[in-house]
Write a structure and sequence with these properties.
TIM Barrel, mitochondrion, Aldolase_TIM, S-adenosyl-L-methionine, iron-sulfur, single chain, globular, 15 helices, 8-stranded mixed beta sheet
Length: about 400
């Protein structure tokens, strides 16, 4: 039996029965009255070492800072440090919270959250009429595993939500926007790659809000045939976007091995071809990440290939490593270089170029410009059609007989 209860009971009883003996437990090892000579010597040496160290005066003496070779560097220095122009505040605000609530209530996903976009606070915080969100269709699990992307991957994602096209159209109609961007995960497990699902969503959006302009950032529909691309391009879409992501040499190391540089160019070409065959006019758009190991002449070649494929819009942005599991950043590109690529691309004949460290493929400033371009083109097309109609009426058979 332990001695602790005995001590406790003995002490307790002692308060009422003074004649009962009290048992006390003491330590087995006595505490020495003074330190041994060896311990005293060791303690003295420690204090001597502290006395020999730097004092506060050494830090404020104004002496020249040691060179980089003489300094001791702590921490992980294998990665370049994040420059100040890439740092963004944590997203907050009433508009941000309202959009997030709308999306959750309807069970929708956004690439803004899934891809950890740094612009989410700017885009979602713009108020009911100015806020933008890029809705990601077909769930939040992708069948590809690109090394730059933080979207979850799965070989066999859950079945498509049949209510998603209707719910997406409902959410967009609530916001009262003039321009919306849709994107999607890759669904190689589906027979058409999800083309019918994307096309249905676009059609329902146009039914609920005929004046809204829709941009879709699509998969490459690998091995699904050009019909899948044509289905999306002719669904009422205004801007068909598909990203080459990087230069041709870096593609196998940056993107999933099932994605190819030539394959992406072919998708953009087929989108324009399918729309023209259906008598529709669309813009095509692609994006390039910088900072993954590309060389200058390779970027120029990628731009030439995009123009050869009749791509209208191109954007440049900085690759940002989403987690430590993803590929490392090769370098952080300075703002001056983005300005240079904007000039180069415009001189090649691109209709619009968005270039900057925080620019992403769906970027608000670019959307406003494209919106104005499309409205202007449609106004010109309507004017031309009205002129042709007037000419036809003037040369009708009745007038010729007279």
């Amino acid at each position: 039996m332990s001695s602790f209860p005995v001590v406790r009971n003995a002490v307790k009883g002692a308060a009422y029965l003074p004649h009962r003996p009290v048992i006390y437990r003491s330590l087995a090892t006595a505490v020495p009255d003074s330190l041994t000579a060896q311990e005293a010597s060791s303690s003295k040496r420690r204090f001597e070492k502290l006395d020999d160290g730097l004092t506060f005066d050494d830090f404020v003496s104004g002496e020249e800072i040691p060179s980089e070779k003489e300094r001791v560097v702590l921490g992980n220095t294998s990665q370049p440090r994040l420059p100040s122009f890439l740092k963004h505040p944590i997203p907050t605000g009433a508009s941000y919270s309202a959009i997030k609530k709308d999306l959750r209530g309807l069970g929708l996903h956004t690439v803004c959250e899934e891809a950890k976009c740094p612009n989410i606070g700017e885009c979602w915080g713009g108020g009911k009429g100015n806020a933008t969100a890029t809705i990601m269709l077909m769930g939040d699990q992708c069948t590809r595993g690109c090394r730059f992307c933080s979207v979850k991957t799965a070989r066999a994602p859950p079945p498509l939500d049949v209510h998603e096209p209707e719910n997406t159209a409902e959410a967009i109609s609530r916001w009262g926007l003039g321009y919306i961007v849709l994107t999607s995960v890759d669904r190689d497990d589906l027979a058409d790659g999800g083309a019918a699902h994307i096309a249905s969503t676009i059609s329902k959006i146009k039914q609920k809000a005929p004046s809204i302009l829709v941009e879709a950032l699509t998969p490459d529909f690998a091995n699904k045939g050009p019909e899948a691309v044509h289905m999306v391009a002719t669904s009422g879409l205004d801007v068909f976007a598909h990203n080459i992501e990087t230069v041709e040499r870096c593609t196998p190391f940056v993107r999933d091995r099932r994605a190819g540089f030539e394959q992406s160019l072919k998708v953009l070409e087929e989108a324009k071809k399918g729309a023209r065959q259906a008598g529709k006019e669309i813009l095509t758009k692609s994006s390039i990440m910088l900072g993954v190991g590309e060389l200058e002449h390779e970027v120029e070649e990628a731009l030439r290939r995009l123009r050869k494929s009749d791509v209208d819009v191109v954007t440049f942005g900085q690759y940002m490593r989403p987690t430590k599991k993803h590929m490392k950043v090769d370098r952080y590109v300075q703002p001056e270089e983005y300005a240079k690529w904007k000039t180069v691309a415009e001189e090649m004949g691109f209709l619009y170029v968005a270039s900057g460290p925080l620019v992403r493929s769906s970027y608000k400033a670019g959307e406003f410009f494209i919106q104005n371009v499309l409205k202007k083109r449609r106004a010109e097309a309507a004017k031309k059609a009205a002129a042709q109609l007037s000419t036809t009426e003037a040369t009708s058979p009745r007038d010729l007989s007279a």
